[in-house]
User: What shape does this take?
Amino acid sequence: EPLSSTGRDFELSYSVKTDDIMVHAIMKKDDETSSDSKSSGGSENKSESRSMCVFVTPPVNLAATFGRAVFFLLDRSGSMVGEPFQEATRALFRGLDRLRERDQFAICAFDHRQLYFKEVLVDANKENIIAAKSWIQQFGPERGGTVIDNPIEKALAVLEESSLLPFILLITDGAVANEKEICQEIERRGATRTRFLTLGIGRYCNWFFLKVK
Assistant: This one.
């Protein structure tokens, strides 16, 4: 299809495989005539301008990356009955599948009680991930309330002992009674290095709480 002057950017993409950093440059030289032409009977003044485009291609091999320590908090309270809990479980499984072998993880399923796959971090190898998925499938949502203080405190305590990059991933509809106090506590502990991620489930999700402000 021929190019037309529609004001759109022209995008060119291609794949390159190399073990080294490669740099290529395309240079264009133009001769432009200056506006001060023959002002006193002299010849035209010409100035040289150049434009250049540089391509830098990174190597295929990635540099060493840091391992992550991820503590999953799964809400199984009464408000999660039905499709919300199914969506939450799928999200948790997806999170487990995205872990790398250098990572570690722990899981807490909570309502007014806490159930732990492991109360310590375990390696994110194939065997542990399969075991974690099997463990999660044993449970469904209960009729209890959403008591989230203890799971968060436990996760923070466990992650503070790890040398890996710490993350808490909270999967919930956010239907908690003391949301303001919980947000204040999380903000108070915000000086820690733990990254707090939230995933809202359901159309009636409590977005204020999930912002963790």
